[in-house]
Amino acid sequence: MSETINVPKVGPVKKSYVLGAGGVVGAYVVYRYWSAANTGSSPPAAADYEPDTSSITQAGGAPLASDRTGNTTDTSGTDGQITTNDQWTDRAVEKLTTIGGWESRTVLTALGKFLARQPLTDQEALIVRAATAAAGQPPVGGPYPVVLVSGGHTEPAKASVPPRPSGLFVNTVHDDNVILQWPAVAGATGYDIDVSHKPIKRVGAVTSDRATGLHSQTRYTARVRARNSHGAGPWSSVINFSTGKKGS
């Protein structure tokens, strides 16, 4: 018995090699038919079989570049980051209104002036410092200095009554009247004059007034206070005076 088999286009080959290879192929075919019978599908032809490479990954676990589809932009590390001044403003407003209790319009006004490099009132500067503490510095165009308005005033001056008058004195004395005089008070639109034993008298924006209906050779006290649309200010110091003899 010949120990070789003549394989076309190959030539003589040992029988053991041919039989071994045929056994491997036969075992594979039997396995594929058995698998198809249990799954209800037809076994694929040998020419149609392709290995599944969907799970093959590059070093580090990333899919092969040829298998990556769709948006491949790397956005790692950008979630929650502030990249524009508008985003910074939104974050600061959210923090200061929910935690700080500021009104959103007030915060927006202060931050808008800050980003426009405009002078800030003290209150606006306080809001800006709170915003940078909560949301960091604006990411674009900085640094943005905190500049206060001229003189450091942060709020318009509160409306108030006039100050206390000073320098009240008696200009002229008669037996039944005297002329009281005082320096003008800034912001006053009128004055109240209080002479002892007499009703308080209200006058306009003057700096003197005649107190009448007095008794001769009698001791009196007098004081004055300034008024404006917000009310009356404090009384001046009290002065003492005496009327003259009858007929003087």
- Reported by name, the CATH topology of the largest domain is Immunoglobulin-like
CATH architecture of the largest domain: Sandwich
Got a strand count? 10
Low-confidence sequence ranges: 46-78, 153-157
End-to-end Cα distance, whole Å, is 173 Å
Please tell me how large the radius of gyration is.
51 Å
Overall pLDDT = 75
Assign an overall shape: rod-shaped
- Beta content: 15-25%
Number of domains: 3
**Most strands sheet:** 5 strands, antiparallel
Question: What is the name of the CATH class of the largest domain?
Answer: Mainly Beta
Q: For the record, what is the CATH homologous superfamily label of the largest domain?
A: Immunoglobulins
The level of helicity is 25-40%
Order of helices and strands: EEHHHHEEEEEEEE
**By helix and strand content, what is the structural category?**
alpha+beta
Number of helices: 4
Task: Describe the fold and architecture.
The chain is of the alpha+beta class and 248 residues long. It folds into 3 domains: 4-39, no CATH class; 85-152, no CATH class; 169-242, Immunoglobulin-like (Sandwich). The protein contains 4 helices and 10 strands. The strands form 3 sheets. Strands 5, 6, 8, 9 and 10 form a 5-stranded antiparallel beta sheet that branches. It has a 3-stranded antiparallel beta sheet with strand order 3-4-7, with no helix packed on it. A hairpin with a 4-residue loop joins strand 3 (169-173) and strand 4 (178-181). The radius of gyration is 51 Å and the shape is rod-shaped. The N and C termini lie far apart (173 Å).
